[in-house]
Amino acid sequence: MPDPRLALLVFGFLLVITLVIAWPRRGIAARLLRQTRRSARVRAEDALKYLYHRAEDGHTVHVDALAGALQLSREQAQDVLESRIAAGQVQRIGTTFSLTEAGRREALRIVRTHRLVEHYLAERTGLRAEEWHEVAEEREHLFTTEEIESLSRRLGDPRFDPHGDPIPMATGEMPAQTPSLLAALEPGEAGIIVHLEDEPAPRFHKLRQLGFELDKRLVVRARSSVTAELELDGRVVSVPPDYELAVGVMATDGGGTVQPRTLDDIDIGESARVARLSSECRGAQRRRLLDLGVVPGTSITAEMRSAAGDPIAYRIRGALIALRRQQAQWIEVDA
User: Fold this and answer.
1) Is the dihedral of CA 144, 149, 154, 158 positive or negative?
2) CB neighbours (10 Å) of residue 105?
3) Which structural domains are found in the chain, ordered by start?
4) Residue 88: is it exposed, middle or buried by C-beta count within 10 angstroms (0-12/13-18/19+)?
5) Which residues does 185 contact at the CB level (< 8 Å), separation at least 6?
6) What is the pTM of this model?
7) N vs C: which end of the chain shows fewer Cβ within 10 Å?
8) Is 322 in a helix, a strand, or coil?
9) What is the pLDDT of residues 291-323, one digit of tens each?
10) CB-hemisphere CA count at 13 Å for 277?
């Protein structure tokens, strides 16, 4: 006859195992099911976004191209496409695939989410610029439509992300901007940087190191088959031809660059009007300056210098605020 205590112990052990596996919402089975569903949704959304970007570039998409882009097997890519066809978001044209109108709307929602998240990471966190895209790739799948619209309102409904890419509106429309490539400027011509391509990441990182930022003015001084010589912020920098393809510019008149004037350049008793905050100012530092009212159009007066020369007290919107030189150098002002 079995020992009742042993039987009870075995029963209790099996009961615990069953609960761990089958407990609603928190059990292993429920978690695996959620992970599987999320993985399928992420693949579907990534596929729609890929189809959208390829269409914007004027390219068609084959199964093998999607498989390579999403790092899936050919069979997995085919399954993703078939699921989107069944959902009415993708259509097959011969051996190629494209978005339906419903698919394009969903793709634009994902692109909008991605670029708003990038804007948030750039403006409200201390995350390095090279990390914005990768983190946004992960988080773009976590937001509901209501949450992303709330985020957009908190950010002031921005029209462009920190790379200069237009953020689709909630209605699906795109803000108008048609920049030219830096490579299209002739020697002697000038332009304002309005877009920096963030992929591949090493090239983007190098451009940032060289001082390329949105809203900065540059002039093409000379160009050869192996390099372009540019004047940027009063400095001469050289970049290879493929770097010019990653920089979007709006052509401007005039052939000379001017070193941006910052708040650090004004003398005691002098006033200046804020033109912009440098894109090098990010995270908590940027939030603090914005909270102090350092926004385009604000008039700032240098009132007094500390005994050591740093910080300097500035009159900002009626309040006397002490800023260190590094902070003042982030604030570009009109001459």
Assistant:
1) positive
2) 15
3) 28-99 (1.10.10.10), 180-252 (2.30.30.90), 263-333 (2.30.30.90)
4) exposed
5) 191, 220, 249, 251
6) 0.67
7) N
8) strand
9) 888 887 888 898 888 888 788 899 988 888 888
10) 22
